Amino acid sequence: MSVTANTVKAQTATGFAYQIKVNADNTVTIMNDPTATETIIPQVGVASSYDPTLKIFDLHYQYTSSSGTIRKFDTQLKLK
Question: What is the full DSSP assignment across 60-74?
Fold first, then answer.
């Protein structure tokens, strides 16, 4: 779902919502979505990016569960 011209809303398999913004240099900024039940943040030290030729997002983000466990995700999404 598009939020703006270069920002889309995404959702994990478990239902957590977040937003991804493609920057001018094809790096990706991962932001928490206002509707999210968990706070999604970028993984520290691991850059997310977008390949416009292959139309692939390479995303690295995490959240901390209510029990304090940090859950990290390394995800690739391909635009159709």
Answer: EEEEE-TTS-EEEEE
